[in-house]
Write a structure and sequence with these properties.
Length: 165
């Protein structure tokens, strides 16, 4: 029997569907939520983040902060988009002041979160993206904590109603 917080597996068949899923998820996230994204290079993490930012009411362009590590966006709550692709270990994040982002007043979206497993908040939403075809992705979501269980439940029920889960 599946636990309330997942894991839930969803399949998207295009970048547009991945973005739409992200938008539905963003519409369910609240201040204090943390989304830990993992997946290979080119799997669709940034596309999902763009959708999440859209669902959070961000009107501006969202791009991967690979070289600056953190981009901040305005939405209905602050959005902190962090890309850890170039991070080699947890120590390098201490100078960044990661705790303000990881435990802040907004929604934190971290690409390559598996690079710093020891720093991730225990209450979070884990999202793993796997490229399974030319444009098809398998997206596995697992909530860890009540705040994230509610967000996941809302997006999964929306997907079922739309026939996408």
């Amino acid at each position: 029997m599946q636990r309330d917080g997942g894991p839930h597996v969803l399949v998207t068949r295009s970048p547009e569907e991945t973005r739409e899923l992200g938008s539905a998820l963003g519409g369910s996230l609240l201040a204090g939520c943390f989304v830990a994204l993992t997946g290979d290079l080119g799997s669709g993490k940034t596309v999902l983040v763009q959708g999440i930012a859209d669902g959070l009411g961000c009107a501006g362009e969202v791009s991967s902060p690979s070289f600056v590590i953190v981009n901040e966006y305005r939405g209905r709550v602050p959005i902190y988009h962090i890309d850890l692709y170039r991070v080699t270990d947890s120590r390098s994040l201490h100078d960044l002041g990661y705790r303000e982002y990881f435990y802040g007043d907004g929604v934190t979206l971290v690409e390559w979160a598996d690079r710093v497993p020891d720093l991730l908040p225990p209450d979070r939403l884990d999202v793993s993206i796997e490229l399974t075809g030319a444009e098809e992705r398998r997206i596995t979501m697992l909530s860890r904590g009540a705040l994230h269980s509610e967000a996941l439940r809302a997006v999964v029920s929306r997907g079922r109603r739309a026939g996408g889960v």
